[in-house]
Amino acid sequence: MVDHAAIRDVAHRNGPSTTLLLILRLRTFIALALVVAFFGLMAPNFMSVANLVIVSKHVAINALLAIGMTYVILTGGIDLSVGSIVGLTGMIAGALITYGIPLPFLGVVVWPNVLETMAIVLVVGAIIGAFNGVLITQLNVAPFIATLGTLYVARGAALLLSNGATFPNLVGKPELGNEGFPILGAGTLFGIPLSIVILVVVALIAAYVAARTPFGRRVYAVGGNERAAALSGVYVNRVKLAVYVISGFCAAIAGLIVSSQLVASHPASGESFELNAIAAAVLGGTSLSGGRGTIGGTIVGAFVIGVLSDGLVMMGVSEFWQMVIKGLVIVSAVVLDQMQRTLSRRARLE
């Protein structure tokens, strides 16, 4: 329970700075309430159940990417490759359903079922994440450069898989035993879209791991002070490698959902998704310097970005202005984060 009387007493004793600090800590929830209220008033049918379900499905994709991104940023890193991993893993799923796995030396084609296809795609996403982790931990490549390079490699590989074409109509064939892929994007569980169910499950697991497990404490320790963490016995490189694997795995989940919703795979899928994921994490209170942030805050941040994007579309705002507004939101989130850090440091000194 929140002791409101205690909060008021602290605010009275320490003056406006404490009140401002409290507002800054709650900024993501305040921002979400404001954007929902604004578009509820200004955009027709924004608050309808059907539209809220659509918004939630859009948010689920960004939130899954942002969960992995949060783990990476908590260690003081960054992953610019997640959008390209979405595109590549979606194309791999499309290729497996369309062409199977040819084995020329045996003269046969193996047709994996839907679960096997998903498992292969998830493993590929984790491997790409591990590749990023190896570049950063073993070859000492800066995270920005390593993941930027992987961004181009993964996007190029996605284009090469089909020579830039789309894999359409990914429904599978009964005689091949690979039907059912569209269910992931269009199916429901107790009336709730599967993409939202997957987000809830992944978010709960990620939040528990971050807050309640030794691994989660090590992630925060590495981001807070890498040298101190190493001196205290934390295997820093292992932790860094693990968070990039988590990020790649989450991106692969998003890639599967995107392709399933479209019932098609396009090599350009996921373009600029990494920017939305970073924005959601930062807006949710994750510090770009590492060591501070929560999965819950990231989910709320993803909803702010999702509501903002869909609300602007419903109001007919130009796509160019949408980019400007998103950019301003990201810059504002970083500025507010810096203000919070400064006020927190000042409050501790008092």
TrEMBL record:
Q: How does this chain sit within the bilayer?
A: Multi-pass membrane protein
Q: Which UniProt keywords apply?
A: Cell inner membrane, Cell membrane, Membrane, Transmembrane, Transmembrane helix, Transport
The answer to whether the entry has keyword Transmembrane helix is yes
Source organism (scientific name): Kaistia dalseonensis
**Under what name is this protein listed?**
Erythritol transport system permease protein
* Membrane-crossing residue ranges in chain numbering: 20-43, 49-74, 86-111, 117-135, 142-161, 181-210, 241-264
Q: Give a Pfam family name.
A: BPD_transp_2
Localization in the cell: Cell membrane
User: Record keywords: Electron transport included?
Assistant: no
> What are the leading ranks of the lineage?
Bacteria, Pseudomonadati, Pseudomonadota, Alphaproteobacteria, Hyphomicrobiales
